[in-house]
Amino acid sequence: MNKFKRKEIFSRLREKNPNPTTELNYSNSFELLIAVILSAQATDIGVNKATKVLFKDANTPESITRLGTKKLKEYIKSIGLFNTKARNIVNTCHYLIEQYDSKVPKKREDLEGLPGVGRKTANVILNTAFGKPTIAVDTHIFRIANRTGLAKGKTPLEVEKKLTKLTPKKYLKNAHHWLLLHGRYVCKARKPDCLNCIINELCEYKKKLEV
């Protein structure tokens, strides 16, 4: 894909959605961190249902550590992998209290040092909470990057690096959310809605005419 197509794709995505953001509900960087940890292999809708109740009772590192792992599980048991996530969240809260004065760190290496936080989660926090031009490559973005020809790669990291390099700078800050939402609602895995896609003629998906 050439740079002119790539620029036009992001221009159209911006025109459709000038101020994209996450569909996770949160009111501060700590709540976002917890929500993103919970979102692994779970839907945003499911996470929002759980955090709506959880955050009313505990939405600080201190209050969650007071809950403890056992009680926390009761709030998030509707979410996949809740046992592991509960342990990671409580341990992360201890780290934040002891190492970062209960604040969410703004550096990638610090974020990735937290239990349950990998590169993808760190990228979401850096981008959504702190406005950094990072791209968290989830299944939606990995699919759309390869399918459209925006940035083909065999691994999420390869796709991330290519997208970061090839995306025009003025679009980079919002690229993550534009691509994620387009992949979630239009360029879907099993049945992409090519007929209603605003970037249809720019896309290099070979099967799009057959859909």
TrEMBL record:
Any Gene Ontology biological process: base-excision repair, AP site formation
MF-aspect GO terms: 4 iron, 4 sulfur cluster binding; DNA binding; DNA N-glycosylase activity; DNA-(apurinic or apyrimidinic site) endonuclease activity; lyase activity; metal ion binding
Necessary cofactors: [4Fe-4S] cluster
SUPFAM superfamilies: DNA-glycosylase (SSF48150)
Entry annotated with the keyword 4Fe-4S: yes
Domain HhH-GPD: 38-185
Keyword field: 4Fe-4S, DNA damage, DNA repair, DNA-binding, Glycosidase, Hydrolase, Iron, Iron-sulfur, Lyase, Metal-binding
Residue ranges constituting the Helix-hairpin-helix DNA-binding motif class domain according to the UniProt record: 109-128
Entries under InterPro entries matching the protein: DNA_glycosylase, Endonuclease-III-like_CS2, Endonuclease3_FeS-loop_motif, HhH-GPD_domain, HhH_base_excis_C, HhH_motif, Hlx-hairpin-Hlx_DNA-bd_motif, Nth
HAMAP family referenced in this protein's UniProt entry, alphabetically: Nth
Family: Belongs to the Nth/MutY family.
NCBIfam families per the UniProt record, alphabetical: nth (TIGR01083)
UniProt cross-references to PANTHER family, sorted A to Z: A/G-SPECIFIC ADENINE GLYCOSYLASE/ENDONUCLEASE III (PTHR10359), ENDONUCLEASE III (PTHR10359:SF18)
Name of the protein described by the UniProt record: HhH-GPD domain-containing protein
Protein species of origin: marine metagenome
Taxonomic lineage: unclassified sequences, metagenomes, ecological metagenomes
